[in-house]
């Protein structure tokens, strides 16, 4: 429950494991944010991809997948995930916040988790008997790169779940050595991605959904206007 603009904003939060949609997790204290991803600190202490559903009491029948950043080495879960999801739920959207595994020499697990998250939204809507008019995808920093990458490939593959719009907030765009975030570049190349295919500027096609792109200066101005 959040308080803002002299009124109470109500929402419900539930955490699911993406390795098994039917596994229902309610105790967030069992999770620890580490450099490798979110670790389930129960008996198995394993890294699992998670999705937190923040559901408004009064829905506008639209949903958003939120992908926090963290340089592909950690997840900024609170500031770029949960806080954003709660605010969005206050506007009537159902928010799905992804906590993904980090890329490693064994593979680009983040991509697989983001793809699974889009499929989960369809599953959750059916399970909850909800119909969404649209599904958006919002990503911050490295999460913005992941949002753009997954949206592009979903459109190419013509899968059943494709974002209707994207919001990329101060995203990592390119892996070009001269302009890339070097940490993200190294981790993605180590995971087996190619510099060309993982650079979003090479993925723009006529089939892409509408995109809102915000850089840091624009964000600062928005916050100034909001505060004033």
Which runs of at least 5 residues are low in confidence (pLDDT < 50)?
A: 1-9, 222-228
- Please tally the β strands and state the result: 13
Biggest sheet strand order reads 4-3-8-10-9-11-12-13
Into which percentage range does the β-strand content fall? 25-35%
Assembly state (oligomeric): single chain
GO molecular function: hydrolase activity
Protein name: Peptidase S9
Domain BD-FAE-like: 62-151
InterPro entries: AB_hydrolase_fold, BD-FAE-like_dom, GDXG_lipolytic_enzyme
Protein model, in words:
With 228 residues, this protein is α/β, with parallel strands linked by helices. It has five helices and 13 strands. The protein has helices at residues 77-90, 109-127, 142-157, 182-190, 216-227; strands spanning 2-4, 7-9, 11-17, 24-25, 31-34, 37-40, 46-47, 50-56, 62-67, 94-99, 134-140, 165-169, 211-214. The strands form three sheets. An eight-stranded mixed beta sheet has the order 4-3-8-10-9-11-12-13, sandwiched between helices. It is globular and about 45 Å long.
Give the tags.
228 residues; alpha/beta; three-stranded antiparallel beta sheet; globular; disordered C terminus; BD-FAE-like_dom
């Amino acid at each position: 429950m959040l308080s803002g603009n002299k009124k109470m904003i109500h929402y419900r939060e539930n955490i699911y494991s993406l390795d098994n949609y039917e596994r229902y997790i309610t105790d967030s204290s069992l999770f620890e944010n580490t450099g490798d991803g979110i670790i389930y600190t129960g008996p198995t202490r394993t890294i699992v991809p998670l999705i937190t559903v923040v559901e408004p009491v009064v829905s506008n029948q639209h949903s958003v997948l939120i992908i926090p950043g963290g340089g592909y080495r950690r997840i900024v879960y609170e500031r770029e995930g949960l806080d954003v999801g709660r605010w969005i739920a206050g506007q009537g959207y159902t928010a799905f916040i992804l906590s993904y595994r980090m890329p490693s020499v064994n593979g680009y697990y983040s991509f697989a988790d983001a793809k699974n998250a889009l499929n989960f939204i369809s599953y959750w809507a059916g399970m909850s008997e909800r119909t969404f008019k649209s599904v958006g995808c919002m990503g911050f920093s490295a999460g913005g790169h992941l949002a753009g990458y997954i949206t592009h490939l979903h459109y190419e593959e013509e899968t059943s779940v494709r974002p209707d719009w994207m919001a990329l907030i101060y995203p990592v765009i390119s892996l070009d050595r001269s302009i890339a975030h070097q940490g993200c570049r190294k981790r993605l190349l180590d995971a087996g991605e190619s510099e060309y295919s993982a650079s979003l500027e090479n993925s723009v096609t006529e089939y892409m959904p509408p995109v809102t792109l915000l850089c840091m200066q624009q964000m600062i101005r928005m916050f100034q206007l909001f505060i004033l």
